[in-house]
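[Q] Does anyone have a clean structure-token version of this?
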Amino acid sequence: MTIFASCQTTTKQNNTEEKSDTIPKILPPPLGVDKSKTLEEEVLIDYISSAKIVKPNPENGQPFDKLDYDKVIAYDFAGSEEPYPAVIDRQGKFVPVVLGQQYLSQEQADKILSTLTSKSTYGEATAACFQPHFALVFYKDNKMINQINVCLDCNYLISEIEIPAETHKKVNAGTKEEYAITGFTDKGKKGIRDLCKELNFTYGQDEKKSK
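[A] Here you go.
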């Protein structure tokens, strides 16, 4: 996927994501991010060990029905197209713009994963940008095995492991011009915002302000 600076509405015409250039080991938070509110790498790493254990649920849908994980932690962060399009960078380090973290209970994990694997969550337009503020990271033995980064403003997610439901709605199906419409539906956005509201994350605060 080619990333633009604009947030004009469009659709993604393929499911191929270009990886960003290698991120240097040390980068400061961008202008506009209060460094006093960001979490240090050591704090983030220590928290992984203290997170409660959850079990994969076969009813959650692909690919999480068979993914071998034992913890799911949600992150609130000030992501950007560059240099922070994901909460964990290509070197396996947390980006320096993480504002909050919370491990998920079994109930919370099952609920959000059921949402993310449902076809009814996807099928609307996306924008040609990616500035995520929410992420889910899956761990096994305290090591990351998958991360999902979500941008509600741009209306889509990027998961390191493909979520089949995301690409269920096709345009020009069966032709060379076939592509999937992967944007969140209102139902999908509500599921994400509901969890963020529980966790007191940015996207949950946005929902409160809109009411």
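[Q] Thanks! Anything notable?
[A] Residues 27-210 form one domain.
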